[in-house]
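Researcher: Re-running this chain for the archive, since the previous output was lost when a drive failed. Same request as before.
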Amino acid sequence: MKLISTNIEKHYHDQIVKFEGSRNQTLEIFAFTLSTCMWCALGKKWLKERGYSFSYLDIDKITIKERNQLKSKLKEITGDQLRFPLLIIDKKKWCTGYEPLKWEEFLNE
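Model: Regenerated structure tokens:
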């Protein structure tokens, strides 16, 4: 089951930021973040410092109606455990919150 649909990627194409890291990776990393969240900023920094390529969407930069719809979809994925940042790997696995040790384990599974 894909956790991020192609429709979401197409719909928010202009707002999705892509970072090309130096790491040779096969993982596709996508993050839902908030532009004003210190944990989200730390998460982006952590990924960049480790050379990961990733994409992210700051959901606080989309309309309130769309944000609420997207948050509702994300809550379905996470089982109401929605915390930011929300990492999605290969459109199949997810991890919420900024927890570097958990991320390291999660990305190396």
